[in-house]
Specification:
By secondary structure, the protein is an alpha/beta fold. It is 30% helix and 17% strand.
Length: 223
């Protein structure tokens, strides 16, 4: 079982002067769910190398069993430090793709031509695609049969009220919930900050950091 995980390379939180990137739990939890199930995981990002970590996801209150495990796992840290350059990746040979969130993907992966190419290729071959929290931003421009990939599909992602809760509604380039609806997605959500995952065909989306483990398990179920 070969799984591709794609992380953001973007580290600036708009014009705030603060840092962003990927959210640690949203990488660590799925990484171990998939790895413990025997998957071979390839990590990639637009710029390759070490993706930027959102410093807020490294704070004490954001730690989980998975993040603690990651911090004592030299092999996983080495793998993360040497992600492959996305432009060199094709969908060939992979059984599924998974995107961890964090605010970074709103800026780079949502617009990245290589990411769009890879997602569309997975969709055309009816292979599982997973994205959690802000990562459903990747569906902004993806199409299948000239229609938005999420059109008519049940999807979730970081809610407008969750974005409001972290005070970034006016900082982000777009709101995940609004974009998914605008693309014709059947947007569903659970309570803010509670785990909520939806699967439609081969598409798995999770609402927020708390959904990352369940989203990875849902992806695994499709395999």
């Amino acid at each position: 079982m070969n799984i591709l995980m794609i992380l953001t390379s973007h580290d600036k939180l708009g014009d705030t002067g603060e840092k962003t990137g990927f959210w640690l739990e949203e990488f660590a939890a799925p990484y171990y769910v998939l790895k413990d199930a025997g998957a071979t995981i390839t990590l990639a990002s637009p710029k390759g190398g070490q993706p930027p970590l959102d410093p807020k996801s490294d704070s004490e209150d954001a730690q989980t069993e998975a993040t603690k495990r990651f911090k004592s796992d030299d092999d996983a840290q080495a793998a993360l430090a040497s992600t492959r350059v996305l432009s060199e990746i094709t969908a060939e040979g992979y059984d599924a793709v998974f995107y961890p969130g964090g605010h970074g993907p709103l800026w780079d992966l949502a617009e990245d031509a290589d990411s769009i190419r890879i997602i569309e290729s997975f969709a055309e071959h009816d292979l599982p695609i997973g994205a959690v929290c802000h990562a459903p931003a990747i569906f902004k421009h993806t199409k299948i049969n000239d229609k938005p990939l999420v059109a008519g599909k049940k999807v979730t992602g970081f809610t407008n009220t969750e974005e409001e809760g972290v005070g970034l509604t006016d900082v982000v380039p777009f709101l995940v919930e609004d974009m998914l609806k605008a693309n014709g997605g059947v947007y569903l959500k659970g309570d803010d900050w509670a785990s909520f995952v939806t699967t439609d065909g081969k598409l798995v989306t999770g609402q927020n950091p708390a959904s990352s483990e369940a989203a990875a398990k849902a992806l695994l179920d499709l395999l």
